Amino acid sequence: MEEKEDRLIVAAQEGDVQTIKALLDSGVDVNAKGYSGMTALMQASKNNHIDCVNILLNAKAGVNIKNELGRTALKMAQEKGYQSVVKLLEGAGALDYSQVSDVVYQKENLNEAYGIIYFIGGINLLLGLIGVVFKIEAFQQWGIGLYSIIFGFVYLLLGFFVKQYKSIAALLFAFMIFIIDSFVAFAAIVSNNDTSIFLPFIIGLLVRISLLKGMYQGFDAIHTIKKAESMKIV
Fold first, then answer.
1. Alpha-carbon separation of residue 43 from 46, 57, 75, 79, 80 (angstroms)
2. Among 11, 152, 187, 208, which residue is least crowded by beta carbons within 10 Å?
3. Are the C-beta atoms of 97 and 71 separated by less than 8 Å?
4. For the chain, what is the largest distance between any 2 Cα atoms, rounded to a whole number of angstroms?
5. How far apart are CA 75 and CA 90, in angstroms?
6. Cα distance between residue 205 and residue 190, in whole Å
7. Residue pair 81/45 in contact by the 8 Å Cβ criterion
8. Residues 6+ apart with CB under 8 A from 177
9. How far apart are CA 49 and CA 15, in angstroms?
């Protein structure tokens, strides 16, 4: 079978359509790799054999397989300027690996976004439970109690939906609730007219802005990841 796989790769390099069809009909692995990790699709693409590319794509050739140098069929066609081949490959779901790298980056952003939501939810739930169980006066003055428990539970639930289902709605809800909660906290401090807590509030505000920024980047992350998943890239 290895000899047939080598013949398939050579046939793709030479543009031998009939041999490619015969070998594929005989059960040869369309994604078999030869010298330097080259596949038949890579050879056909880099040599501008459009008919061969079509046949191999119809046989479910992997469009995002890399050779030993980390190059794909799409990258080879782009370097040669074979636009017809490039369009065929992109239509089959091939991505430039700069885009794949962007997906990896956006996954990290999504991890940060739902991580922040979990963090906010966990902190509120913990402090709320402490405030209710031990009846700490300072916590009661800051409104930390049953409200914090409910807030924390809701946030943990939203974090779950963002992580598991990449839910834009859950992320938006978490984002808006946090903004509203920040305004409520600001209004409470202003109404108390207590200048001693002004500095802690400013520090807290900066922390909240940082957390909001982390959540906000989750929107673009979800959009990018879902698009990549629809194209079966990730």
1. 5, 13, 12, 13, 12
2. 187
3. no
4. 85
5. 11
6. 14
7. no
8. 151, 154, 155
9. 6
Assigned token pair, 177: 């609730």
**Do 94 and 56 meet the contact criterion of CB atoms below 8 Å apart?**
no
113, 221 contact by CB (below 8 A)? yes
Give the integer Cα–Cα distance in Å for 207 and 120.
11
Report residue 94 as tokens: 């091939």
| Per-residue model confidence as pLDDT tens for the chain (234 residues) | 578 899 999 999 999 999 999 999 999 999 999 999 999 999 999 999 999 999 999 999 999 898 998 889 999 999 999 999 999 998 998 877 666 667 778 899 999 999 999 999 999 999 999 988 888 877 766 678 888 999 999 999 999 999 999 999 999 999 999 999 888 877 776 776 666 667 777 888 899 999 999 999 999 999 988 877 776 555
Token pair 């990449």 in the structure block, residue: 166
CA distance 215 to 111: 10
CA separation for the pair 111, 163 (Å, rounded): 8
pTM: 0.61
Buried b (16+ CB within 10 A) or exposed e, 182-192: beebeeebeee
Amino acid identity of residue 90, one-letter, is E
**36: Cα within 13 Å, side-chain hemisphere:** 7
